Amino acid sequence: MNAIVETSAIHGWGVDADPENDPTYPMRDQSSEGNLKSSWTPPQMQETQVEILQSIEYIRRPAVAGTSTPPSGISGIIRRAAFTYSESHWFHWLMLMGADRINVVEGVLHDLTRGKIPNIPREMGVRAEWRHNKQGRVKKIAVTASLSGALAAFALYKRKKEPAPSALPAERASGAPRRRLPAQDKPD
Which candidate, 37, 64, 70, 73, has a CA 20 to 30 Å from the CA of 81? Predict the structure, then answer.
């Protein structure tokens, strides 16, 4: 059980609780501050040597942007296409999530082409999860095993339900397309 903490004894606790002391609560009214906006000089833009994707909602990009992973490959094509949509459009985010998943596969293939076999469990943090969250790890293993078993059982069931090729008429067993009977030859 958690003990009750006296918050007044914590230095800095609730520093943003006073709306008079918080310039962002809820939004500062700048009309009485003269020309605050006009005296602000925007920071110098970061010079980049790589492509930076920018939302269509903004005229310019932020002064600082990440350059560690420029768009490339199929995931980069999808990301570029995603940034042609508004951030308020669900397809923008769906494409970015899909590009992330494809980028993972691209990374694994890149490792394989360099002769490096990726250690997927280690990259997924299995060892750390086992050390710090055994119950969660066991639950994931149980769910994965259950779903795999259910899929395997369904596949076997479906395979047994289909007739063997020898049980089919000779015409169908050979793979020949079924002939349609003329209208007058159809049995009544």
Answer: 64
